[in-house]
Specification:
- The chain is of the alpha+beta class and 294 residues long.
- The protein has helices at 4-18, 21-24, 33-47, 54-76, 189-232, 237-292, and strands at 92-95, 98-100, 118-119, 125-128, 134-142, 148-159, 162-171.
- Strand 1 (92-95) and strand 2 form a beta hairpin.
- The protein is elongated, with a radius of gyration of 33 Å.
């Protein structure tokens, strides 16, 4: 008898040999699943507000202090520090009602650069974006007596391994400045990411809970039916066994539903906490803006 499987293998081998060598060894794309998963994990950590490595923060603090000191030395000498800025569509210099972009930056007149004032090189607060591309910080300016004159709120951008000013806002001592907190891609985005994630988690938990409750209801109906049948035939061993089995199914379904209820309650509480945090920030922002008005 002919070996059918062996014949098929030889036929397949012959077919391969019939294909030109260049086609036999063509490039085949194999996805880097490990790299993809690592990238997804990093993005999730970024959106949750996890900071970059402390060494990167320390390096950024040192280099951003040097950048701000360079800016300060130029404006104090009456120069326009165009070389400190990354000039593009995102460039902004803001002082009160004055807002300059890359095209009008040469008109800058920094009121903090008065004689006798001093920039404190070390930032009051500095965070680096979770994706590493930018940094956000606050720098204080004092008068000769050491009293605060105002604050710079600076967004720095990394390009070609150097830090540049992307935007600089001059904040008066009683003025409102958005808080400098850890962000992922743009300042203030982590809270939004957390809120969106929490809403999705609540929706998913609700869906699972609804299915579990329906399963529990079906199991309860089955248990009630089996129990009624067992009560009607107390001497029927089969009916008694069916009732016990149905009761066990109900117990497991109830435990499962309770677990999903716990998850739903936990996710709902987390969403409520984030939304309360969002409302508190909005209230703080409105109060700060109102207090800053002359």
């Amino acid at each position: 008898m002919r070996n059918r499987s062996g014949g098929l293998i030889l036929a397949a081998f012959a077919a391969v040999l019939a294909v030109p060598a260049s086609a036999q060894y063509g490039y085949v794309y194999v996805p880097d699943f490990e790299g993809i998963n690592a990238g997804q994990d990093a993005e999730m950590a970024c959106r949750r507000g996890f900071p970059v490595h402390p060494s990167e923060v320390s390096s950024t603090t040192f280099r951003s202090a040097a950048l701000m000191s360079s800016y300060w030395s130029k404006v104090q000498s009456g120069q326009v520090p165009l070389g400190s800025f990354l000039l593009n569509k995102h460039t902004r210099w803001t002082a009160g009602a004055v807002s300059l972009d890359a095209k009008t930056l040469a008109a800058m007149k920094d009121p903090y650069a008065a004689e006798g004032n001093n920039l404190v090189p070390k930032p009051l607060r500095l965070v680096r974006a979770g994706d590493g591309s930018t940094a956000l910080g606050l720098w204080q300016v004092n008068d000769a007596a050491g009293r605060p004159v105002g604050t710079y709120r600076a967004l720095l951008r990394l390009k070609k391994r150097d830090w540049w000013l992307s935007s600089l806002e001059l904040v008066e001592p009683n003025g409102w400045a958005e808080p400098v907190v850890q962000y992922c891609h743009v300042p203030g985005d982590v809270l939004g990411y957390r809120q969106a994630s929490a809403k999705a988690a609540v929706a998913d938990a609700q869906k699972r809970l609804s299915a579990a409750r329906q399963e529990e209801a079906n199991a309860r109906a089955g248990a009630d039916k089996a129990s009624a049948a067992a009560e009607a035939a107390p001497d029927n061993v089969g009916q008694q066994g069916a009732a016990k089995a149905a009761a066990e199914v109900l117990r497991r379904a109830s435990d499962n539903a309770s677990g999903f209820q716990s998850q739903f309650d936990k996710q709902s509480a987390e969403l409520a906490r984030i939304e309360a945090e969002q409302k508190a920030l909005e209230a703080q922002r409105e109060a700060g803006k109102a207090a800053a008005k002359p």
